[in-house]
Write a structure and sequence with these properties.
- Chains A, B: It is found in: Cytoplasm, Cytoskeleton.
- Chains A, B: Keywords: Cytoplasm, Cytoskeleton, Dynein, Microtubule, Motor protein, Transport.
- 2 copies of one chain form a homodimer.
- The first copy, chain A, has 2 helices and 5 strands.
- Chain A is α+β, with helices and mostly antiparallel strands.
- Chain A has one domain: Dynein light chain 2a, cytoplasmic (Beta-Lactamase, 2-Layer Sandwich), CATH 3.30.450.30.
- In chain A, strands 2-1-5-4-3 form a 5-stranded antiparallel β-sheet, sandwiched between helices.
- The N and C termini of chain A lie far apart (36 Å).
- At the A-B interface, helix 2 and strand 3 of A face helix 2 and strand 3 of B.
- Strand 3 of chain A pairs antiparallel with strand 3 of chain B, so a sheet runs across the interface.
């Protein structure tokens, strides 16, 4: 499967409610971002570290399992993270309807 | 606002797709759980640590902001965490429809 970085950035950042998109490589360095340099660096480092801890926690609980998506909802916005070879951080002001409440 | 632990446990665990509910206190110790003792302890510790890191990351990025909800989607299930005085961990096999993709 090919992954067009610019196409992905354009597609996601154009969605309603999306405030910013940051795409980082496996080492946590941003390769594309709609945030400024300083914020991109901060988000990249903090979120990459959080994803790593989440991956470790999931594997510790069940080594046959793996993290596929992480959503960090805050008072101000929501950060959505799709971990993979390339990680996509999406800061979204929208709200997902919780299916279980 | 009062919080009826047993009522909450019953309400959430009865929802479609919910496999387990763990309610822990501020120190990370489980006060109610539908999992066995060992799994409850494992989940409690790992998820409480993850929540703490997420809270710290959110505060570091913006000290006026705060974590309100964390969702950890894995290949096998989804863990939903509502941090507060009491944390609720919900392991759900359901899938939330992503609003931005």
């Amino acid at each position: 499967m090919t992954f067009d970085v610019d196409e992905t950035l354009k597609r996601i950042s154009g969605k309603k409610g999306v405030k910013a998109v940051v795409i980082v490589n496996a080492e946590g360095a941003a390769i594309r971002s709609t945030l400024d340099h300083e914020l991109t660096k901060q988000y990249g480092q903090l979120i990459a570290s959080l994803v790593q801890q989440a991956k470790t926690a999931v594997k510790t609980l069940d080594d046959q399992n793996d993290l596929t998506f992480l959503r960090v909802r805050t008072k101000k916005h929501e950060i959505m993270i799709a971990p993979g070879i390339l990680k996509i951080f999406i800061i979204n002001i929208g709200r997902c309807i919780l299916t279980i409440f």
